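Usage

Read records sequentially. Each one opens with the input sequence:
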Amino acid sequence: MKLTCQRSALATAFQTVAGIVPARTPKPILQNIKLQATMEGATLVATDSEVGIRYRVGEATVDAPGELLLPKNKTNDILREMVGDTITLEKTDEVLWIRGDRAEYRLGSEDPVEFPNVSGFEANEYYILQTGALKQMIRRTLFACDTESTRYALGGVLIDLKGDVATFAATDTRRLAVTKCACAMQGKVEVRNGTPVVPSRAMSLIERSLGDENEPVWIAIDTNHLLLKTAVTTIYTRLVEGRFPKYQDVIPRHATSTVDLVAGPFHMAVRQSLIVTNEESRGVDFRFAPGILTLVSQAADVGESKVELPIGYDGPEVSITFDPRYIAEFLKVLTAEQPLKLELTNADNAALFKTEDGYNYVVMPLSRDR
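and closes with the structure output:
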């Protein structure tokens, strides 16, 4: 097997698929990345048994088709340090040669036949989303997952695909992120019982693998797995077991106060208030008064802070205590100029942040006697 390709293209593809290669596994062969070369081109394949990816390498010239295994760590080091525009990979017997500009490496290579297969995309009925919309939906929900929860369904993003609307939701029970975008269907896609939850690790991989924002993305969902296809990537992932909370019931419906905010200035004020907090006293009081928001924090052995921000609000004074990290993580995924509304009921009930494009973020307040 022998091929030559652009070093930068191979490095980009390798870094994307390397994200799911397990650091520790009872199957050491999974710590490799398979390179499949045909006369049509080259594809990198990686899996941890739960999530798998196939990534087509651009600008590859195949001189001799075949397969080989690339050890993740050594190959990554070589691609990072090697110079020159092109790189050649060749396998002879049990030896892997990597050659570049004035450098060559001889590595041992395991038998690729032992590497698990990663399914390609063969569905005839699937949903179609735009890459830019999908990337935004992932960013707006992924941070709200609870990756350490014993309730497995909280460790992923719920995908609710119905007709021409796709809804993503994620929660760790202390906050909830819900966002929507338009989608289309190819064929008569069956309506599933329940909604699939995709592991947060798989969603992170999907986000990293997405390219041109105007390209279509195909999504097919089966009983226990999801397949996603882009122009260069196919990703397979098992779905999370367990029942996702009824997120629609969590979103507050009746607010007594509404505050107009802009993401950038609000984010700056929240980051400033974060400075004087610690694990024991992480709460910040958000005090809303006509025309002004005051953020007050106090932490033992750290100090006190007061940050003021002019706002569009003319209602009665309202005070509520939040963990500012939850607010900052939400604001981080918005553009600085994004307008938003904050709907409040009182100091004890959940608050709702809303954007004009249908993004809802619910946050539970902290108790005042924290």
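Summary fields computed downstream for this record:
- The chain has six helices and 26 strands.
- Helices lie at 7-18, 72-81, 131-141, 200-209, 263-274, 324-332.
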